[in-house]
Design goal:
The chain has 23 helices and 24 strands. The protein is an alpha+beta fold and 667 residues long. Helix 11 packs antiparallel against helix 12, helix 11 runs parallel beside helix 13 and helix 12 crosses helix 17. Bound molecules: adenosine-5'-triphosphate. The site of adenosine-5'-triphosphate has 16 residues, from helix 2. Belongs to the heat shock protein 90 family.
Length: 667
């Protein structure tokens, strides 16, 4: 778990400012090089919550510490590719778990990359993930008790404090002198101490001084069971001292012989049939830094021009920073089982940034860097392969005949649908497949739930209907109650109700689905083609002639506020509505752009009037207040589609005048 940037509090006896972020106190009562640093308020709060909300899952601390130790070994192996001396004649990477009944401690150590003093302060003293603090401060009291929400942070190192009331970390970075050892200690309350110590061994040793009620953890049997349950998949051997039964003491006692407790093989290299579901799930928690199970995964070996193995997971819930541009994302890249990098975002397109997992390539050079990844043709092939696999996995869920699959897809859509929608504009090659995965709300159910696929829509299309109709507004209710829908509702033609910001982007990039054009109900000259019968068409034509004079008069009155005024075929109940010209930007999109501080062209709408509405009929005979009537007609049409009035006060005055005139029998 990465912690918040911290500074000292309360002010110490003496303090120095470090790199703008930390205040450090030198505790005069202890050794000269020992410093005490205070956690920031949020860190204290987080620790407190973690201890309480995760208590019932307390065993996970071991998984988290072993997971970190494994990552540290991976990092060392990677760094040693360029500098073999980092192994310091100890190339066998491993993780050790030990316990001391008398001292009531557990120790988890690794001979991985270790940490320098600065790294200890940053890694065990700040929350590096951007947005964490904001996310955290937004949690309500009840949410703070929710283990799954707290677990979203990636509980990491600080989960040690669930079972320990004091944690000591001894570490030295690989390649440094023995004198560069660091000792970090904290009781997980307000502060931690840090000092330089001699440490001949490289790597990290974490000692947990157990809380009063945690003595059951001081058992070889118990620790082995936890390791096998959560950490069997860890690549490095996790060793413990072998134990044997001591007849005299009547208990298990540790011998000096080591034994490996886990399988210690790279899970993704094993055959699918040999991997249990739980092993896949636990591995996900390690690579995904997640507390919860994944929703689904795909594991495949690709052979041919490119040889690689992929084990990719769709998480069960969206991380809180899914929408944060600076958030870490991407998958772990290995080359022939050697860890190369975390968060290799080039291995998947941005709209699939929520996917976690591993790609292990047999072909890439071991010295591959992020820069090389950006230009590599091999990476492009892997990226295309991974994208297709994930889309296939999603299709399997979406098309599943079983309720469980459907439910999973609905869950996926709720968590990641908005990210997937971005793919319509980002991934031209897979646009049709992504379109098949989209889900929308529609007038079919008239609820905000996004559950209608384009295929469902097409299957329900009316005879003679050749377009997929949608309305886009800035809220579900604005879309659902849009006057533009009136004729569609009357004729029973389904319309997709779009109210997500990204929906405008989707329809801007998706012109058709299976040969059926997507058409806005609020744009262009509505032509329902064979969906209108002859009598309706004749009625429309005669209305156009009959109302020509009124239309011209309104146009003259509204002058440059409108591009055109015409008789509508869309409305049954409302007197008027605004529509955008066929090739103009929709009013909703223009509003979204403006709200985002971007430039939007100043387009004039078309006002359509309903020749059957009493207000419009009444207007034909209005004289004195015609301009007020015309303006109110325009303004209410703008309000009905979610627009904002340029001059609300004048609108209110006009309404009041008209109401008064009516009560006085003048209007
Ligand atoms: N055994 C270790 N050896 C070397 N570095 C470590 C070790 N344990 C932790 N670290 C460093 O401390 C950092 C913070 O660890 P922490 O467990 O809090 O978070 P994390 O593993 O980065 O992510 P998450 O919070 O999602 O688990 C790690 O990223 C790593 O750099």
């Amino acid at each position: 778990m990465a912690l918040l940037k911290s500074w000292i509090s309360p002010p110490p006896t003496a303090f120095v400012m470090l790199s703008g972020d930390f205040f450090m106190s030198v505790d005069a009562t202890t050794a000269a090089n020992r410093e005490t640093m205070g956690f920031q308020t949020e860190v204290k709060q987080l620790l407190h919550l973690m201890i309480h909300s995760l208590y019932s899952n307390r065993e996970i601390f071991l998984r988290e510490l072993i997971s970190n130790a494994s990552d540290a070994c991976d990092k060392l192996r990677f760094e040693a590719l360029h500098n073999g001396s980092l192994f310091e004649s100890d190339p066998d990477l491993k993780i050790r778990v030990a316990y001391d009944k008398a001292a009531r401690t557990l120790t988890i150590s690794d001979n991985g990359v270790g940490m320098s003093r600065d790294e200890v302060i940053t890694n065990l003293g700040t929350i590096a993930k951007s947005g964490t603090r904001e996310f955290f401060s937004r949690l309500s009291g009840d949410q703070q008790k929710d283990a799954h929400l707290i677990g979203q942070f990636g509980v990491g190192f600080y989960s040690s404090f669930i079972v320990a009331d004091r944690v000591t970390v001894l570490t030295r970075r690989a390649g440094e002198q023995a004198s560069q050892g660091v000792r970090w200690e904290s009781e997980g309350a307000g502060e931690f101490s840090i000092e330089m110590v001699d440490r001949p061994e490289r790597g990290t040793e974490i000692t947990l001084h157990l809380r009063e009620d945690q003595d059951d953890l001081l058992s070889g049997w118990k620790l082995r069971a936890i390791i096998r349950k959560y950490s069997d998949h860890i690549v490095q051997p996790i060793v413990m001292h072998k134990e044997s039964w001591d007849e005299e003491k009547k208990e298990q006692v540790a011998t000096t012989e080591d034994e490996t407790v886990n399988k210690a093989s790279a899970l993704w290299t094993r055959a699918k049939n040999d991997i249990a579901e739980d092993e896949y799930k636990e591995f996900y928690k390690h690579v995904g830094h997640d507390f919860d199970d994944p929703l689904a995964w795909v594991h495949a070996r690709v052979e041919g021009r490119q040889e690689y193995t992929q084990l990719l997971y769709v998480p069960g819930r969206a991380p809180f920073d899914l929408w944060d541009r600076n958030a870490r994302h991407g998958i772990k890249l290995y080359v022939r089982r050697v860890f190369i990098m975390d968060d290799a975002e080039q291995l998947l397109p941005n709209y699939l940034r929520f996917v976690r997992g591993v790609v292990d390539s047999a072909d890439l050079p071991l010295n591959v860097s992020r820069e090389i990844l950006q230009e590599s043709k091999d990476i492009e092939a892997i990226r295309n392969g991974c994208t297709k696999k994930i889309l296939g996995l999603l299709e399997d869920m979406a098309n599943s005949e079983e309720a469980e699959g459907k439910e999973k897809y609905a869950k996926f859509w709720g968590e990641f649908g908005r990210a997937l929608k971005e793919g319509v504009g980002q991934d031209f090659a897979n646009k049709a497949r992504i379109a098949g995965l989209l889900r929308f709300a529609s007038t079919h159910a008239d609820t905000p739930e996004e559950s209608v696929s384009l295929a469902d829509y097409v299957a329900r299309m009316k005879e003679g209907q050749d377009k997929i109709y949608y309305v886009a507004a800035d809220s579900f209710n604005a879309a659902k109650n849009s006057p533009h829908l009136e004729i569609f509702r009357k004729k029973g033609i389904e319309v997709l109700l779009l109210s997500d910001r990204v929906d405008e982007w989707v329809v801007g990039n998706l012109t058709d689905f299976e040969g059926k054009a997507l058409a806005s109900v609020a744009k262009g000259d509505l032509d329902l083609g064979s969906l209108s019968d002859e009598a309706e068409k004749q009625e429309q034509e005669s209305a156009v002639g009959e109302f020509k004079e009124l239309v011209d008069k309104i146009k003259a009155s509204l002058a440059d506020r409108v591009k055109e005024v015409r008789v509508t075929h869309r409305l049954t109940d409302s007197p008027a509505c605004l529509v955008a010209d066929e090739h103009d930007m929709s009013a909703n999109l223009a509003r979204l752009l403006k709200a985002a501080g971007q430039q939007a062209p100043d387009m004039k709408p078309i006002l359509e009037i309903n020749p059957r509405h009493p207000v419009v009929l009444r207007l034909r005979y209005e004289d004195g207040k015609f301009d007020d009537w015309a303006s109110v007609l325009f303004d209410q049409a703008l309000l009905a589609e979610g627009g904002q009035l340029d001059d609300p006060a004048t609108f209110v005055r006009r309404i009041n005048d008209l109401m008064l005139a009516m009560t006085q029998g003048k209007a």
